[in-house]
Amino acid sequence: MIASCGISIIDNRRIRQLREQFGDRFLNRCFSYDEIEYSCTKKNWSEHLGARFAAKCACFQALNWNNWRNYTQVVVYKNNLGAPGIEMKGELNRALSELNIQRISISLTHSTEYSIASVIFE
Predict the structure, then answer these.
(1) Local structure of 31: helix, strand or coil
(2) Is Nuclease included in the keywords of this UniProt record (predicted)?
(3) What is the CATH number of the domain that holds 110?
(4) Can you give the pLDDT of all 122 residues of the chain as single tens digits?
């Protein structure tokens, strides 16, 4: 049964601007090492980072988590079939346990300009 859902859209130009302005500081504050390594090896790296950032925002939205946002506690990965998966760490993982969330479904898409993610908690 669906407990909650979230959707987010990110302007990839903003991702490029933040990386140009803040460099590794921005990347390390918002993404895991694996997310950075995967995305930054791509020609269209801002689209991949944008999709991951959108997924993180969609998770916070689905949790109704407005107090603070620790983006590195949400990690987007590819499973063994190449589909996106999501892992919650730390305090966010505890919140999922308290809400009895058993499964998280995620969908990502991106174009040159925008990245979109949707998340469903069951």
Answers:
(1) coil
(2) no
(3) 3.90.470.20
(4) 889 999 999 999 999 999 999 999 999 999 999 999 999 999 999 999 999 999 999 999 998 876 667 899 999 999 999 899 999 998 888 888 888 999 999 999 999 999 999 999 99
Nearest C-alpha neighbor of 59 from the set 44, 36, 75, 40:
75
The domain in which residue 44 lies consists of: 4-121
Please give, one letter per residue, the 3-state secondary structure of 55-87: HHHHHHHHHCCCCCCCHHHEEEEECCCCCEEEE
Chain-centre distance of CA 53, in angstroms? 4
**Domain total of the chain:** 1
Distance CA 118, CA 116 (A): 7
User: Contact at 8 Å (CB) between 93 and 110?
Assistant: no
